[in-house]
Amino acid sequence: MNLHIVALFRFKENNLMEAVELFQTLVRETRKEDGCLQYDLIEDKDNKGTFFLIELWESVEHHNLHNGADHLLDFRKNAAKILEETTQVYKGFKIS
Can you give the pTM of this predicted structure? Predict the structure, then answer.
């Protein structure tokens, strides 16, 4: 069963360029992973510094493998320094 994820990030306004660079590497490398069906970065049009990652994984197992990927671990380490607040992550399965 496909796993859908939406992750919400809010970065400090003076670090937006760095955040975008971190995301670009994360998105590029994650899209190469087995089981990644969608991995899109969206910038909120009304709230500067707010980003969404829209993810679709072939299975929970594929996402679990992603959680151990070097590029995700690097992103988390570097992003933690410039986040405005804790990231919110929502995971679920499509109902219809």
Answer: 0.93
Neighbours of 22 (CB within 10 A): 21
For tokens 């996402």, the residue is: 63
C-alpha separations of 93 from 10, 13, 85 in Å: 25, 33, 26
Q: What is the pLDDT of residues 5-39, one digit of tens each?
A: 999 999 999 999 999 999 999 999 999 999 999 99
d(CA 12, CA 29): 24
pLDDT digits (tens, 9 = 90+) for 60-81: 999 999 999 999 999 999 999 9
Planar angle of CA 84, 6, 8, nearest 5 degrees:
10
To which H or E segment does residue 63 belong? helix 60-67
Structure tokens at 73: 């671990």
| Sequence letter at residue 62 | H
Q: How many CB atoms lie within 10 A of CB 48?
A: 11
